[in-house]
Amino acid sequence: MSKKEVFSVCGMCTVRCPIMVDVEDGEIRFIQGNPHSPLKGALCARGAAGPALEADAERPQYPMIRQGARGEGKWARVSWEEAFDYVGAKLQELMDKHGPRTVLFSDRGGPFVDLHQGFMRALGSPNYCNHDVSCARNVMHGCRSVTGRPRTEFVYDYANAKHIVLQTRNIFEAINVAEVNGVLDGIDKGCELTCIDIRANVSASKADNFFMIRPGTDYAFNLAVIHELLHKGLYDKAYAEMWIKDLDRLRTFVEPYSPEWAAKECGVEAKAISKLAKDLSKAAPHVIWHPGWMVARYTDSFYVCRSAYIINALLGSIGAKGGLPIASTPKDVGRQGIKKLVDLFPKPEEKRADGVGWKLTAHDAGPGLLHKAFEAIDSSDPYDVKAYIAFRHDPLMAMPDPDAIRRIWDKLDLLVSVTFTWSDTAWYSDVVLPLSPYLSRESIVAQKGGLKPQLFCRQRAVTPRFETKADWEILCGLAEKMGIENFAFKSIEDIWAYQLEGTGVTPEDLAKKGFVGLASEPRYLKVDELKFATPSGKLEMISEKWEKAGYESLAPYKSPARPEGENQFRIAFGRVGTHTQGHTVNNPLLNEQFPENVLWLNAARAKALGIKDGDLVTVSSGGFSGSLKAFVTEFIHPEAAFMVHGFGHTLPVETRAFGKGVSDNELMRGGLALESAPGGGLAMQEFFVTVAKA
Ligand SMILES: Nc1nc2c(c(=O)[nH]1)N[C@H]1C(S)=C(S)[C@@H](COP(=O)(O)OP(=O)(O)OC[C@H]3O[C@@H](n4cnc5c(=O)[nH]c(N)nc54)[C@H](O)[C@@H]3O)O[C@H]1N2
Ligand SMILES: Nc1nc2c(c(=O)[nH]1)N[C@H]1C(S)=C(S)[C@@H](COP(=O)(O)OP(=O)(O)OC[C@H]3O[C@@H](n4cnc5c(=O)[nH]c(N)nc54)[C@H](O)[C@@H]3O)O[C@H]1N2
Ligand code: SF4
Ligand SMILES: [Mo]
Hints:
29% of the residues lie in helices and 18% in strands. It has four domains: 3-55, ADC-like domains (N-terminal domain of TfIIb); 64-135 and 334-517, Rossmann fold, CATH 3.40.50; 156-325 and 524-548, Dimethylsulfoxide Reductase, domain 2; 568-693, Beta Barrel (Barwin-like endoglucanases). The protein is α/β, with parallel strands linked by helices. A hairpin with a 5-residue loop joins strand 16 and strand 17 (454-457). The structure holds ligand MGD (2 copies), iron/sulfur cluster (SF4) and molybdenum atom. One ligand MGD is lined by residues 11-13, 108, 131, 134-135, 294, 392-394, 398, 419-421, 423, 435, 438, 573, 580-583, 645, 664-665, 684.
């Protein structure tokens, strides 16, 4: 009998917690959080369901090439050799005809994307995108517009915080295990928790203060808090003097936005807003006003996020211990970071298809804006985009209006999906390249900044059950077929050797505990040591970069529309602890825990429609209609109808998920064109649905 412990990284969601896998005779016996991890090793229910994914035969098992029409589900099973030949030749043909820029690639972001970006550089295309227009782009750009830095260069120091505000952030259900533990540690030490949401979620049930606000009015709430901080002198004056630019303009701008005004707009008490501002100033700078994570919701979401960073700035918490300290890089702690795969190739000079970097000068060109790249496929403006690789990404479920996306994709000459489960996108593709799930694939080395920066990597715990391959095997295999020698790595060890050169860390070091910490103590900067990357070097209340790009820094508040009539509601969505987006709904264990989504409706409004808890209801918008059960509760704002995202699967190959619940994305016709323009995030909660008893 052979037994081993493999230190690796969970992949059931984007958080990627450190794990330890007990393997016996080549089989997974047990998974737990990595006990060596300073993040306090632990696993959520989804992470624990990893072996069920590995065992599940209802996933793509071998490479497939489409036979019938797109989406018809007729596939030819091919060998990897044939799949690489097919995709490689097709890519080459299209690149010869239209130039390398004709290839678009999108993924789900995260710590391992250097491999994907390297592959795109190897092809010579500038069109790498990630999923973030449907997730955190507004937070990212909100952060950049105030601090000049990406949001990921700030740590949420929950364990040392004295007051945490969760706004559009359901930390106990939309899980990041280390964050959950951090908040619990903070609470143990007396930290106050405030929750601002449209419904009482699990986080609200643990909060000291809960504001159930009218959907889409968060910006009004935040403006009133800023008003209080400035007009009552509750802000950190010394910090402001040192770091905040254009405070006077902010003060004048928020003058009309009093708590009394916001109270009416948001449906909360003015006194409670004032008290919150006072409490925060007492706890400052050990305060985290969470700027949100999934904020692709409203046309003003960029300003909601931006105002959250402004509140943090006024409280002096940006850069502070127990607030949002600046993450250290390996270099900051005197170590050398890993070498990047993208640096194997020159940056393409070609402009991006999505317009970022030339038409849109404020937005980050790194991951671009995927919905704008889709527009380019549709219009051939600025040029033809004819090939698209969706890599570990399911835009048909992750973006609004799947029918519109299909129509756009029909203009592609090649659509490839790389995935470990079936997805609507894979089903509509020309070629499906099956990825090994994370327990049976290894990754490139990743570098994580933080209070203590570290290197980590995924190890292969078990051999793949079917004919699936690791990310690097797929992309390097394709590169080899296309004659791109520089990217045709033959083994993961070769990649690791390249990445780790000069770091003083070996693959053996990484395998020992799954990660290598690069600092022994957390590194906090003193207030006068902070550095911001704005043009002025300060926290900019008026953002030079965004103003130059044609956007207001301080946009006047516009009241969101109210639903009209007795049966209309604003659609709202979010996560549940037991599922990740759309791709775990067919997982045998998780499906058992939470088989279908339900529609949260406010009790008084449901009563008016004759709907009782548990009744089947239809929910309709823009010609789409679906039915699911009603969950009738006092604890949701009357204007909202909420559902957990990721349901309503229609693929016959996913028997457990098939036909259960409703997909929120279907209720967003025309949604590809609705965004929070200065942030680039989609505005997926700007839709009204009608609800009726089925
Ligand atoms: N209407 C609406 N739209 C949304 C959301 C919403 O709440 N409502 N949520 C948005 C959010 S926050 C996000 S981040 C996006 C997510 O959008 P996606 O990233 O597209 O969603 P997933 O279902 O997590 O994963 C996509 C695919 O990646 C494959 N995959 C391959 N390898 C891995 C791996 O190692 N790990 C994981 N997890 N998957 C892998 C899975 O098989 C799956 O088919 O969707 C967004 N879209
Ligand atoms: N279990 C689980 N955990 C996950 C994921 C997962 O799929 N499953 N995905 C990961 C990913 S990719 C992401 S982005 C994060 C997302 O993390 P979060 O953004 O925290 O998660 P959500 O559930 O989308 O939304 C948070 C809350 O916003 C509320 N909300 C909706 N509209 C409004 C509004 O107008 N105002 C206010 N104030 N609140 C509103 C919802 O009711 C919900 O409770 O979770 C991560 N963790
Ligand atoms: S939060 Fe859960 S599913 Fe996501 S990586 Fe961590 S353990 Fe895995
Ligand atoms: Mo996300």
